[in-house]
Amino acid sequence: MTTAVLPSLIPFRSRRPLPGFGLSLGLGMAWLGVVVLLPLLALAVHAAGLGSAGWLRAIHDPRVQAALKLSFGASFVAASVALIAGGLVAWVLVRYRFPGRRLLDALVDLPFALPTAVAGIALTAIYSGNGWVGRFAEAAGLKVAYTPLGIVVALVFIGLPFAVRTVQPVLEALGHEQEEAAASLGASRFTTLRRVILPELLPALLTGFSLAFARALGEYGSVIFIAGNKPYATEIAPLLITIRLEEYDYNGAIAIAALLLAASFVCLLAINAIPSLFAHERREQGRG
């Protein structure tokens, strides 16, 4: 007589589609090193080889300073606008149900899938002097295309999805209970927004701002068409890197690229530090 083996006596072995932790981690880090870390390391090594004299000579160029001021300034403004608009869009998508909501939710991700050059051409066609919007804007005395304002518009276009997608899941997890409790205690809508909703959304808002800023700082394709690319006026830093390479000024291109890389790295550190800082603050408040 055969003895049936109980399933509970069989040692449980986890079966995963990928091999063990060590092999998976090794393969992942190898690909990450070849595709991401190695090029960045090469840029850092070349930038360090410039020396202080090479850095000062490259950065003190008035054309470089004008491009850097425009890129950082336009990226900051665009990230701020994307943060406000993205928060409102996320609020509408989470809190309301209306016809076309799923379509609007899908359209938020369109800048992720759309080639940046296509976005730049489309924005230029819309906001130029004879475009659908540009003709009315210029009639009112507001020129968008080929101005810094056009650069901000393009950067808002590519940065908006980051703000929406970082705020939306937090709003979905927040629910209505806290708002209803505040309303039952007599709090006004503004007080509820300031005391209940914004403190919960602040980490996500700051993360969305950092992502939008970092993305805008290195944007190229959607900007060069609508910017006009006038030196000292509408020339962005990523475009100036390309120009320096075409002029065989490799040291100048490396200096600008390394500066943008450092700024993006700072944004990356901020993105990873923001949740930890707020979690630590909440733990301290809970102990108090």
From TrEMBL:
Top-level taxonomic group = Bacteria
The ABC transmembrane type-1 domain covers 68-271
The alphabetical list of record keywords is:
Membrane, Sulfate transport, Transmembrane, Transmembrane helix, Transport
Looking at the UniProt entry, the stretches that span the membrane are: 21-50, 70-94, 106-126, 146-164, 196-217, 254-278
Membrane topology label:
Multi-pass membrane protein
Q: Which SUPFAM superfamilies match?
A: MetI-like
Q: Which residues form the signal peptide?
A: none
Annotated compartments: Cell membrane
Q: What does this protein do?
A: Part of the ABC transporter complex (TC 3.A.1.6.1) involved in sulfate/thiosulfate import.
| Oligomeric form and interacting partners | The complex is composed of two ATP-binding proteins (CysA), two transmembrane proteins (CysT and CysW) and a solute-binding protein (CysP).
Family statement drawn from the similarity comment of this UniProt entry: Belongs to the binding-protein-dependent transport system permease family. CysTW subfamily.
Official protein name in the record: Sulfate transport system permease protein CysT
Q: Which organism is it from?
A: Lysobacter yangpyeongensis
